[in-house]
Amino acid sequence: MEFPSNLKKIAKLSDSFSEEIENFIVRQEVAKGKFLFEQGKICRHIFFIDKGLFRVYYYANSGKDIAAWFSAEQTYITAIDSFYHHKPTNDFCEVLEDSIVYTIKYSDFELLLDMEDGARLAFHVMYEITKKMTEFITSTKFQSAESRYNALIKDYPSILQRAPLGYIASYLGITQETLSRIRAGK
Fold first, then answer.
1. pLDDT digits (tens, 9 = 90+) for 11-20
2. DSSP string, 57-75
3. Per residue of the chain (186 residues), what is the pLDDT tens digit?
4. Rounded to whole angstroms, how far apart are CA atoms 118 and 176?
5. Running DSSP on this structure, what letter comes out for residue 16?
6. Rounded to whole angstroms, how far apart are CA atoms 154 and 26?
7. What distance in Å separates the CA atoms of residue 45 and residue 102, rounded to the nearest whole number?
8. Helix 176-184 crosses helix 165-172 at what angle (to 10 degrees)?
9. I want to staple 147 with a disulfide (CB 3.0 to 4.6 A). Which of 17, 22, 96, 143 is the partner?
């Protein structure tokens, strides 16, 4: 297996470390409709998305599923609290299209911290995941649905072709009818 070259560039890793980390990461092909993690189970891996689209969601008290965010190529995804504290997650991560991910389990992630490039990679991964969560919280508290829609289209230009509109509306916190009005520019 070859360590993804784009990940090597993103985290500014040395060639020697890129070879060494191949002992820690696992390449997986994941079929549409599967889950990377599920509510009630412990998420024991961090995933780097090489190809594909994923939706993280949870169930509201009403029983309706609410999309928390989307992740696609060149991003990381995990149930951070579950991964770090080894407790069941409240979220689901659904695979929306056939995908390729690189995974690293918690115990190997800890071992990376003892290596200079490994610590750099671990910091990069945690920063990117935290940044995504912070952006989500900020957008839901301070942006209009139209602003959130524009940001989603900017981050994922092909999202309208890749994800059902109901999922996009759920992520934006609006109905599909309101999404249709925003898309029409009214």
1. 677 777 777 7
2. EEE-TTS-EEEEEEEETTE
3. 455 666 666 667 777 777 777 888 899 999 999 999 999 999 999 999 999 999 999 998 888 899 988 999 988 899 999 999 999 999 999 999 999 999 999 999 888 888 888 888 888 888 888 888 888 788 778 888 899 899 889 888 899 999 999 999 999 989 999 999 999 985
4. 44
5. H
6. 30
7. 10
8. 90
9. 143
Q: What are phi and psi of 13, to 5 degrees?
A: -100, 150
Amino acid (1-letter code) at residue 4: P
Place of tokens 């994800």: 163
Structure tokens at 69: 């965010």
Give the Å distances, CA to CA, from 139 to 60, 68, 134, 145: 19, 11, 8, 9
| Token reading at 22 | 């191949």
Amino acid at 120: R
Give the Cα-Cα-Cα angle 158, 47, 125 (nearest 5 degrees): 95
Give the whole-angstrom CA distance, residue 65 versus residue 16.
44
Neighbours of 169 (CB within 10 A): 20
Please name the amino acid found at residue 183: R
E strand intervals along the chain: 26-30, 35-37, 45-51, 53-59, 65-72, 75-77, 92-95, 99-105
